[in-house]
Design goal:
By secondary structure, this protein is an alpha/beta fold. The chain is built from nine helices and ten strands. The chain has one domain: Rossmann fold (3-Layer(aba) Sandwich). Strands 1-2-4-3-5-6-7-10 form an eight-stranded mixed sheet, sandwiched between helices. Helix 3 runs parallel beside helix 9, helix 5 crosses helix 6 and helix 7 runs parallel beside helix 8. InterPro entries: AB_hydrolase_fold (IPR029058), Esterase-like (IPR000801), Mycobacterial_A85_antigen (IPR050583). This is Esterase family protein. Pfam families: Esterase (PF00756).
């Protein structure tokens, strides 16, 4: 049974306006950690597929547990919602809304959060997190805006040829710290672009990143391309990036 302390959490809803997004705004959900105090400052985790991270990934409950029981430094989570109908167009680097989404994220979303919440503004205190194409867009945000983002959590990243090509053309990536996991039962997953071997996609991308000097945590373990696998992996991934107080 889930400890009742983990369910006493603060999750706020926000809407950020955008000049870049077609719909002109984007919904967010903000997790404030136990003991939140606006005179302090906090690391921040930006989650793609925000609704899924909160509902299926149970990221707020997990964060509360890690902070209360394991002494992780309190941190804020920003879940960025997405319209599933245009998700690939926003998240894939060859999508027709990708460039606009990156600009929205870096130029509008981050300033909006940093103006309203006491999050730290150094790249080492911002973490980008995503599953599948959410992991992909998180990596491309870091590659496009290394002055903002140097840390990426990728769960079963959908690193198609267009992504691998971009990584392959990158220069020194020794500034990048990326956490990659993929499930061993993801060798023939059907996507909206066809059937892909996600193990091969991740192995290839890992090799490309290593060649450029990136700092990589990489693991393959039993799991399918679904939240039942990723939910169980979120605690370890957060421990990797968030310091113990």
């Amino acid at each position: 049974m889930t400890d009742a302390r983990y369910l006493k959490r603060t999750i706020l809803k926000e809407t950020v306006d955008s000049r870049y997004l077609v719909e002109g705004q984007r919904n967010l959900r903000i997790f404030l950690p136990p003991g939140y105090n606006e005179v302090l400052s906090y690391p921040v985790v930006y989650c793609q597929d925000g609704e899924d991270f909160f509902n299926f990934g149970r990221v707020a409950t997990t964060a509360t547990q890690l902070i209360l029981d394991e002494g992780l430094e309190p941190f804020i989570i920003v879940g960025v919602d997405v319209d599933k109908k245009v998700r690939t167009e926003e998240y894939a680097p060859d999508g027709n809304r990708h460039a606009a989404y990156l600009r929205f994220f870096a130029e509008e979303l981050v300033p909006f959060i940093e103006e309203k919440y006491p999050v730290r503004r150094e790249p080492q205190h911002r973490l980008l997190a995503g599953d599948s194409l959410g992991g992909t867009v998180s990596l491309h945000l870091a590659l496009e805006y290394p002055q903002l983002f140097t840390r990426v959590m990728s769960m079963s990243g959908a690193f198609y040829a267009s992504s691998q090509n971009i990584v392959g053309h990158a220069l020194d990536l020794s500034w990048l710290n990326i956490y990659m996991i993929v499930g061993l039962q993801e060798d023939a997953f059907e996507t909206d672009r066809g059937v892909y071997d996600f193990i091969a996609l991740n192995r290839n991308t890992r090799a490309l990143l290593e060649h450029k000097g990136a700092n990589i945590f990489y693991e393959e373990k039993d799991g399918k391309h679904q939240w039942g696998f990723w939910q169980k992996e979120i605690p370890q991934a957060l421990r990797y990036f968030i310091e113990v107080e």
